[in-house]
Amino acid sequence: MTKRANKPRKPRDEESSDEVSGLTCQHVSKAVDLNSVKKSMQSSVWLVCSECLKERTLIDGEAVGSHEILVCLKCGFQGCNKSGIEHAVKHHQAFHPESHCITISLSTWKAWCFECNEELSTHCNKKALAQTLDFLQKQAVKATSAVSPKIIKLREESDPSRSKSSAIYNSLVPVKGITNLGNTCFFNAVMQNLAQTHMLIDLIQEVKEKGFKLRICPPPETSLTPFTVMLSGPEPLTAAMFLFLQTMKESGKGPVNPKILFNQLCQKAPRFKGYQQQDSQELLHYLLDSIRVEETKRVKAAILKAFNNPTEKTADEETKRQVKDVT
């Protein structure tokens, strides 16, 4: 009999396990999906708990990222680890445990397996944990450099009955027709979607009034302390947008005429004049971008006033630099 050759042992599958404080985690292959995490990050707000955002518990003066955010490495869900809420834990419990059990903290960059109840080493599995960690850290750099200083709404006295009735009211926005101004189906389609975007309606309603107060939190490198500004009235397009959304919410029969809003938009983007067919996505881009420009202008004017300068032309270079840093 011939001597059987010794076959080399196959290396352990890198994607099937990871070292966990001396133990072996067998959930990595099922619970880490880099492509799904990348896809989720395209539509998520960075460093914000997805469930808290839905429940609107991040407003009322609480800074974004004030508590730990954990990312599910299976689907990219961002959940908080705040005591008493723990949306990250609830997410793990709601889905198949072994598929959504591994998370990475966006503040400490530590990986954790809920099933093993242990911390994972992110250096043992280059194709799974290490690559996902590298992607998230790069996203953090992009988000830090791209996001402007956060403007936080001042805390107000909360009325549970009022907030409950408001939530019910907002969930029952009626669906009303919109008058066609002549080949403006592309415009009407966008406005029907925006009229059912409850968070947008609430946000515009909150900031529309003259005298609305905002608390500005400058980035740490500016050495400026947080301060409060008072806004003037909204610019024409923003005011027209609010009027349209309010009209869409009102009870009554008959379609809504969007002529005022459409004309204001055409002044900002003349390409939509002439009542020719246009692309809906382009219109949405121009509409939201124009409103953003108007609101930036309104906030900048309030900050200049807080710095005792009526206009940007009268401000010195140091004041202009400070205003640029916080807007």
Automatic annotation (TrEMBL):
Q: What is its EC number?
A: 3.4.19.12
The record's keywords, sorted A to Z, are: Hydrolase, Metal-binding, Ubl conjugation pathway, Zinc, Zinc-finger
Q: Which GO terms describe its molecular function?
A: cysteine-type deubiquitinase activity; zinc ion binding
Residue span(s) of domain UBP-type:
23-140
The USP domain sits at 176-327
What Pfam families does its record include?
Answer: UCH, zf-UBP
For this entry, the protein name equals: ubiquitinyl hydrolase 1
